[in-house]
């Protein structure tokens, strides 16, 4: 591409639209990608010069995020979800059909530059798949007929904005509402209560409620806020003078395959989520908040911006909120660009600062040193929705639901082999068996609770409960019936982790690829018993030595299925009684003869399974 002045002006326009701030690099690159279908060399040069950052920084950020590219993509860039539930609904066959229809291989751009095809990790539409994206916008319920129509629209060069609305239609699909979804708050009601009663009182309500984060780890929300409000301390444990800046971040990255409950909260309860963030700002003393929205949820952005504008009009955001002097707070939407690791809170903050999403070394935790080194609260979308409800209805109301250590309810995203996939909300303590009954699952082989990083459980454990003290989950609940092969599921998950590893630390970068290769080898029937021993030991090594939660959980699918479904592995082995060609004990025979020993200590036992 020859770079004209017009193109250069466009780049400058994008940079200025984002106030020429290096922290906005990712947003600028997203705009450039949308305009040019890649980030061309000259654009990288222009951006680096304007932001006064090295060109290599621009380049490494592009290479990090899967929705950005150095190479030219098609004007219609189509991605199909490669999540296991989409695969179960036939996404691989649909890709072959798409590819033949459009005359382009997956991972390639057609010679005329019109269309490119590829796979992507989960799109957050597991209940309405097979799903995909076209130029970043959701495509739901794909089938042969729909693909025929899409191919025709592409060949006729019809802009995506003019495609039939039903291609993009997404339903909330709420099957079983509970505590939160049945009691949505009136716009502004929680904030009015907070302003009336004071933020100290609201903090006490949050504390009383026992609320724990809904993003998966279950850290106590009140504790997190207290640390952030207190801010950094000097060596004597005293607050450092002049350090007043605080930030509130809503984690809407929702990248765990099988999780789509935040999509519903943002689609239909965005006021409540923003209200929860604003309550948090009042408690910790923050002036600025961010909603970090996963790149694949681009479709939600215009309506979320409209909700924010509405809240500013109603004085629920902005200066002197609800007339309270000094209560100033606003929220900005920041788009991700396709990196699962950016859901990890410190990686998310790096991304928000315009960098690659490499998880930070912790401590210090974000509540002490977060966005731009300032105390920062990061909470999940659902956590903020709970906060608003607690601020209005009180901590005691919330705490009467759930179990002793897990108060309130949990919204879960049900997908896979069941009659009624969708959104279910239960008080904590519900059993797996109850959920399976409600969603119409039969002949169930296994349930994946918490997505690939969670646990795969078998029929013997359906009495177990969703609760932090038993089965913790960020919200994914995938059902697999007896027609599924457990190893296909493990294979999909290990490929996912190898693809999503950020590459920062060796155990995860190298380990997840080796693990993926081991699983492939087993699935292809080339492994022997000893390979399982090696694989289990590699899995434990990755789990215990990786730097962040991604690596620490990447081996969970292998480890949990090795213990719950050993027969599935044994059935694929080449020869269960296979012994290695090299017998270490036999090779020591000469040494034994020379030293005239044949006692037990002079022999080696080889590890078997
Ligand atoms: C690889 C990885 C991905 C994560 N993805 C998300 C996510 O998409 N949404 C989320 O809220 N938390 C995610 N988390 C957890 C966050 O790091 C963090 O604990 C959470 O946002 C805190 O909010 P909470 O206390 O309200 O749960 C992820 C963690 C890891 C290690
Ligand atoms: S564990 Fe994996 S994702 Fe986490 S820092 Fe290491 S390489 Fe990156």
From TrEMBL:
SMART domains: NADH_4Fe-4S (SM00928). Keywords: 4Fe-4S, Iron, Iron-sulfur, Metal-binding. It holds the Pfam family 2Fe-2S_thioredx. Its cofactor is FMN. Coiled coil: none annotated. One of its GO terms (molecular function) is 4 iron, 4 sulfur cluster binding. It comes from the Bacteria. Residues 487-532 form the NADH-ubiquinone oxidoreductase 51kDa subunit iron-sulphur binding domain. PANTHER family: NADH-QUINONE OXIDOREDUCTASE SUBUNIT F (PTHR43578). Belongs to the complex I 51 kDa subunit family. This is NADH-quinone oxidoreductase subunit F.
């Amino acid at each position: 591409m020859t770079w004209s002045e017009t193109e250069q002006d466009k780049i400058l326009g994008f940079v200025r639209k984002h106030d020429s701030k290096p922290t906005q690099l990712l947003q600028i690159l997203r705009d450039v990608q949308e305009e040019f279908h890649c980030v061309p060399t000259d654009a990288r040069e222009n951006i680096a010069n304007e932001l006064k950052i090295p060109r290599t920084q621009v380049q490494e950020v592009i290479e990090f995020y899967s929705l950005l590219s150095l190479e030219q993509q098609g004007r219609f860039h189509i991605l199909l979800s490669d999540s296991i539930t989409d695969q179960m609904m036939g996404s691989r066959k649909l890709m072959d059909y798409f590819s033949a229809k459009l005359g382009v291989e997956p991972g390639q751009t057609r010679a005329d530059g019109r269309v490119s095809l590829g796979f992507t990790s989960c799109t957050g539409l597991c209940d309405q798949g097979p799903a995909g994206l076209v130029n970043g916008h959701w495509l739901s319920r794909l089938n042969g007929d729909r693909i025929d129509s899409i191919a025709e629209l592409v060949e006729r060069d019809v802009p995506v904005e003019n495609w039939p609305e039903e291609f993009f239609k997404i339903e909330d699909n709420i099957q079983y509402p509970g505590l939160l979804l049945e009691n949505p708050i009136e716009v502004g009601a929680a904030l009015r209560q907070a302003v009336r009663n004071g933020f100290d009182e609201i903090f006490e309500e949050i504390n009383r409620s026992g609320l724990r984060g809904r993003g998966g780890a279950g850290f106590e929300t009140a504790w997190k806020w207290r640390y952030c409000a207190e801010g950094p301390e000097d060596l004597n444990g005293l607050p450092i003078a002049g350090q007043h800046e605080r930030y509130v971040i809503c984690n809407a990255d929702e990248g765990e395959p099988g999780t789509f409950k935040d999509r519903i909260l943002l689609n239909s309860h965005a006021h409540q989520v923003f209200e929860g963030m604003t309550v948090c700002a009042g408690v910790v003393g923050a002036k600025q908040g961010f909603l970090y929205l996963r790149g694949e949820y681009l479709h939600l952005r215009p309506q979320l911006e409209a909700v924010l504008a509405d809240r500013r009009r109603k004085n629920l955001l902005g200066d002197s909120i609800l007339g309270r002097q000094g209560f100033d707070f606003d929220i900005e939407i920041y788009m991700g660009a396709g990196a699962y690791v950016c859901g990890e809170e410190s990686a998310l903050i790096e991304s928000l600062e315009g960098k690659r999403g490499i998880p930070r070394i912790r401590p210090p935790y974000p509540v002490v040193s977060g966005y731009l080194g300032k105390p920062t609260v990061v909470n999940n979308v659902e956590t903020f929705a709970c906060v608003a409800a607690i601020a209005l209805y009180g901590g005691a109301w919330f705490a009467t639901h759930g179990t002793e250590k897990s108060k309130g309810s949990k919204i879960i995203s049900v997908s896979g082999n069941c009659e009624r996939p969708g959104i279910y909300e239960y008080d904590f303590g519900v059993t797996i068996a109850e959920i399976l009954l409600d969603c119409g699952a039969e002949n169930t082989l296994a349930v994946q609770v918490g997505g690939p990083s969670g646990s795969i459980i078998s029929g013997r454990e359906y009495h177990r409960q969703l609760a932090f003290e038993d089965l913790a989950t960020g919200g994914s609940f995938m059902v697999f019936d007896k027609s599924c092969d457990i190893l296909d599921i493990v294979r999909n998950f290990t490929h996912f982790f190898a693809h999503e590893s950020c590459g920062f630390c060796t155990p995860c970068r190298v380990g997840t690829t080796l693990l993926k290769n081991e699983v492939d080898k087993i699935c292809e029937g080339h492994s022997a018993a000893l390979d399982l021993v090696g694989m289990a030991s590699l899995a434990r090594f990755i789990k215990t030595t990786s730097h962040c939660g991604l690596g620490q959980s990447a081996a969970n699918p292998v480890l949990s299925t090795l213990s719950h479904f050993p027969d599935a592995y044994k059935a694929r082995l080449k020869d269960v009684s296979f012994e290695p060609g090299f017998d270490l004990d036999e090779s020591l025979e000469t040494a034994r003869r020379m030293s005239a020993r044949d006692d037990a200590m002079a022999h080696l036992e080889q590890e078997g399974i």
